[in-house]
Amino acid sequence: MLDIIRQPWPWYVSGILIALIMIVLLFFGKSFGFSSNLRTICSACGAGSKISFFDFNWKDQKWNLLFLIGAVIGGFISSEFLTNGNAVNISEQTIVDLRKIGISPSHDIQPPELFALSSLSDSKTIFILLAGGFLVGFGSRWAGGCTSGHAITGLSNLQFPSLLAVAGFFAGGLVMTHYLLPYIL
Amino acid sequence: MRGYRFLFLGILFGIVMVKSEAISWYRIQEMFRFQSIHMYGIIGVAVFAGIGAVAFIKKWRMHDIKGNPIVLFPKEKSFWRYILGGSMFGLGWALSGSCPGPMFVSFGYGFLSFAIVIGGALLGTFLYGVVRRYLPH
After folding, report:
1. CB neighbours (10 Å) of residue A95?
2. pLDDT in tens, B76-127
3. Pick among B21, B23, B26 to test the A interface (most A CBs inside 10 A)
4. Which residue on chain A is closest to B96 by alpha carbon?
5. Residue A63: which of B3, B12, B72 has the nearest Cβ?
6. CB pair distance less than 8 Å for A133 and B43
7. What CA dihedral angle connects A86, A89, A95 and A101, to 10 degrees?
């Protein structure tokens, strides 16, 4: 049994489980949306005293912060107990394309060129990580949600604004992947 | 404490994000290059199942465990915030290979460099709060 769990899960199993998490949250009276935690953390750190956007009762969002802590623990449990050490099984064509921009496949889930601690000696890596995070943080609040809030919850509720946001996610992602990344990396 | 159920769901979410490989920078690149069904399958199945479940909940006017009717508050109707904010998000998603959830999962997985990505995301969120009244929404 554990051997089956240790293998990467097929996409249809993962998709069902993600929907299940959203549905269980609905029955707990909550709405699945991860990025609002970033706003909550800013508020909990006292940003609300100067900026009205962060002036709200962040303690109402404690449940979501617990979800966030759970996500960190889930990542830890997975790497400690639930991996089989195989490389991510991306397509041959992706491997070829990524080699052209200096990223080679590895036996880990993230490319060491970007995410190994030793790569932080290059200031360009720090810039990439910081800028990537910045764009995600700024963009998700501007758009009012991220992949969980818009792509999963919003589309499940057939909300047109979420479809616009997802179109934006892909527009930005395609521009970065095909036009900017070759120059950045 | 009743909060444990959210902690538990978060743990499940973290494990699913790892085992689906949705936290992987490689997988996000593959998705934006249209070279595999993998990520589209994950999101597609989740949305498909989600649409069915939400329709069912609405049709039968179901209630949550506290007895309140389950309602999904619609997002406000506008255009530019979704297109511009969404595109900005997409740029960062493809660059860092992670959206907000997977950042924290990857950190827990042991890639401590994601602390920098998370720091950037907090900075971005904060700056949005500062300048939002000057932005089109």
Report:
1. 16
2. 899 999 999 999 999 999 999 999 999 999 999 999 999 999 999 999 999 9
3. B26
4. A132
5. B3
6. no
7. -70
- What is the sign of the dihedral through the CA atoms of A32, A36, A38 and A40? negative
Give the Cβ contact number of residue A122 at 10 Å. 12
Give CA–CA dist B54/B65, Å, rounded: 16
C-beta of residue A31 within 8 angstroms of C-beta of residue A146: no
- For residue B78, give both structure tokens: 């506008």
**pLDDT digits over B113-126, tens only?**
999 999 999 999 99
Residue pair B121/A134 in contact by the 8 Å Cβ criterion: yes
Name the pTM for this structure. Answer: 0.96
CB under 8 Å to B47, separation ≥6 — which residues?
Answer: A19, A151, A152, A155, A156
Name residue B63's beta-bridge partners.
B69
